[in-house]
Amino acid sequence: MASHRRPKHPSRARVTVLTTAAAAAVAISSQAANAAPGEKPSKDEVKAKVDKLYEQAEAATEKYNGAKEKQEKLQKEISTIQDDVARGQEELNGLRDSMGLAAAAQYRTGSIDSSVQLFLSSDPDDYLDKASTMDQLSAQQVDSLKKIQQKQRELAQQRAEAADKLKDLSSTRTELGKKKKEVQGKLAEAQKLLNSLTAAEKAALAEEEARASRSSAARVDLGNASAASGRAMAAFQAAQSKLGSPYVYGATGPSSYDCSGLTSWAYAQAGVSIPRTSEAQSGIGTRIYSQSDLQVGDLVFFFNDLHHVGLYAGNGQIIHAPRTGTVVRYESMDTIGGPFMWGVRV
């Protein structure tokens, strides 16, 4: 008769160990999954993210400035062409009226013929192509018809040019809207991150920036100012007069500025007209690749896409409009956040 043995059960100690280990594994897994999303970023992490967003916003701002400048230029060109077309149409109407008077005079004397009827047609080109008809016209009539023909060609060309520029203007306005939306999106995202900081953290960040600005101002050295041109020094002094003015994207003064808005405004005060955008400004004057060769008032450019510009202030410092949330201030070239590309002596 077979014996029936009861299966062995694990000891309580073993069950307890296994249960504890499993629970610990679940807890560790849960912590790994939830720690990162739930963890509040530090003040420095927020600052790094915000700085990156502001950098992207500034790059988009310079594209926005370029599109805005192009829009304004196209609007002026279109207005000029439309004025030319209006004057040309008046001149054409006058030429046609004079031809009409000549035809009426011939009709009254009974001398009107097919040739006079033809030069009142809507297609002088076709008329002038008929050599036999030309022989029947007076030299004065031929000259008038040639003027009408030339004026019609000019008007057709001007109207075509205006139509092309209107299309370009439409696409430029679309681009302008996209860039504006991109800038606003980056700024809103940065503000959302800043809002996540406590009042104490915000105050600490503000104090750090103020301390850095004071330190930079103390290092500004105008010792090489004598080597700068009168215009460069005048532009630098104009920028100095705006220390503390707020950064506003797309602004060119006199109460707020973006980076290229400040530099273009400053040089305008010195009687020098320079382009509106940082990229365009980087292509004027004499390039200076060595920081040691820079003089006060030289334009200085940063980042590979040249989206930031300031004015050299001596001793490795610049005066510039940094980004949204800041004011026109001095800052070390080493803390801009992007590489120094080159300077430009205007």
Q: What's the gist of this structure?
A:
This protein has 346 residues and is α+β, with helices and mostly antiparallel strands.
Walk me through what this model shows:
The protein is α+β, with helices and mostly antiparallel strands and 346 residues long. Helices cover 61% and strands 8% of the residues. The protein is built from 10 helices and 6 strands; from the N terminus they run ααααααααααββββββ. It has helices at residues 12-38, 43-108, 114-118, 124-128, 131-134, 139-195, 199-219, 230-240, 259-269, 278-281, and strands at residues 286-288, 299-302, 308-314, 317-320, 329-332, 340-345. The chain has a 6-stranded antiparallel sheet. It is elongated and about 90 Å long.
Features:
346 residues; alpha+beta; six-stranded antiparallel sheet; 10 helices; 6 strands
- Outline type: elongated
Number of strands: 6
- How big is the Rg? 37 Å
Q: How many DSSP helices?
A: 10
% residues in beta strands? 5-15%
Q: What value does the average pLDDT take?
A: 83
Which regions have little confidence, pLDDT < 50, spanning 5+ residues?
A: 1-35
Distance between the termini: 112 Å
Series of H and E elements? HHHHHHHHHHEEEEEE
User: Helix share of residues?
Assistant: 55-70%
Main structural class: alpha+beta
Q: Give the strand order of the largest sheet, numbering strands 1, 2, ... along the chain.
A: 1-6-2-3-4-5
Largest sheet: 6 strands, antiparallel
